[in-house]
C-alpha cells in the first residue's frame, strides 16, 4: 500500500516506487528537442503514460480517449504526456493525425523505460501510467485500460485522502 493512495492495491509492478523522486532522464519532444522528465514533472501534476507504438489500434484508442477526457483531467490541474520509443517525427505525425491536445515524448534510447521500470515487449514499452505531483511519484498502474486511463486516474484521485480537494 502506498502512503498517497492506500486504497489502490492493483499496481504491483517493478520499477520506480511510489514516493520516489522523478529522475532527470532525457526524452525528446516532437521537434527533437531534448527535455528532462524531472523538469517536466516538477511543475504541478502530471500523468505520464507509456505506450507501445504510435498508430497502432490500442495506442490510438488510448490517445484519443485521453484527448477526449483532457478537460476532466485539467479540472484537477493534471497535464498529460504520452511517451513511447517512436522517433519524434512519428510522434508529431501521430499527434497531428489525431489532433491530440497534449504532448507526446520520444524515449529514443529507452532510458525512461529503464528508469521507470516499464517492461518491454518486442522492444516496445508496455502500457503503464504514472501520476506525479511536484516531482514525486504518487500512483502507478502497470495494467491501464486503453478506454479507461483517465477514469482510472480520476478514481485514484477520488480514493486518496491525501489529495487536495480544492
List keywords for this structure.
166 residues; five-stranded mixed sheet; globular; 23% strand; disordered N terminus; 5 helices; two-stranded antiparallel ribbon; alpha/beta; single chain
The portion of residues forming beta strands comes to: 15-25%
Please describe the biggest sheet, giving its number of strands, its sense, and whether it closes into a barrel: 5 strands, mixed
The SSE order reads EEHEHEHEHEEEEH
**Helical stretch count?**
5
Principal-axis shape equals globular
Structural class: alpha/beta
Number of strands: 9
DSSP helix fraction = 25-40%
Radius of gyration: 15 Å
Cα-to-Cα separation, first versus last residue: 25 Å
Low-confidence blocks of residues: 1-13
Topology overview:
Blueprint: E1 26-28, E2 34-36, H1 37-41, E3 45-50, H2 57-74, E4 78-84, H3 88-97, E5 103-106, H4 111-116, E6 120-121, E7 124-125, E8 128-133, E9 136-141, H5 149-159
Parallel strand pairs: 3-4, 4-5
Antiparallel strand pairs: 1-2, 3-8, 6-7, 8-9
Helix pairs in contact: 2-5
Amino acid at each position: 500500500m502506498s502512503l498517497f493512495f492506500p486504497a489502490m492495491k492493483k499496481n504491483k509492478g517493478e520499477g520506480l516506487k511510489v514516493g520516489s523522486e522523478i529522475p532527470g532522464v532525457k526524452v525528446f519532444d516532437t521537434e527533437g528537442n531534448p527535455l528532462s522528465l524531472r523538469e517536466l514533472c516538477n511543475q504541478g501534476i502530471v500523468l505520464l503514460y507509456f505506450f507501445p507504438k504510435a498508430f497502432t489500434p490500442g495506442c490510438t484508442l488510448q490517445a484519443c480517449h485521453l484527448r477526449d477526457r483532457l478537460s476532466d483531467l485539467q479540472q484537477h490541474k493534471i497535464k498529460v504526456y504520452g511517451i513511447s520509443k517512436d522517433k519524434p517525427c512519428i510522434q508529431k505525425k501521430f499527434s497531428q493525425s489525431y489532433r491530440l491536445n497534449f504532448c507526446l515524448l520520444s524515449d529514443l534510447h529507452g532510458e525512461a523505460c529503464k528508469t521507470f521500470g516499464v517492461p518491454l515487449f518486442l522492444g516496445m514499452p508496455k502500457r503503464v501510467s504514472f501520476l506525479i505531483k511536484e516531482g514525486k511519484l504518487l500512483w502507478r498502474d502497470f495494467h491501464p485500460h486503453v478506454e479507461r486511463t483517465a477514469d482510472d486516474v480520476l478514481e485514484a484521485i477520488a480514493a486518496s485522502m491525501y489529495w487536495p480537494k480544492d
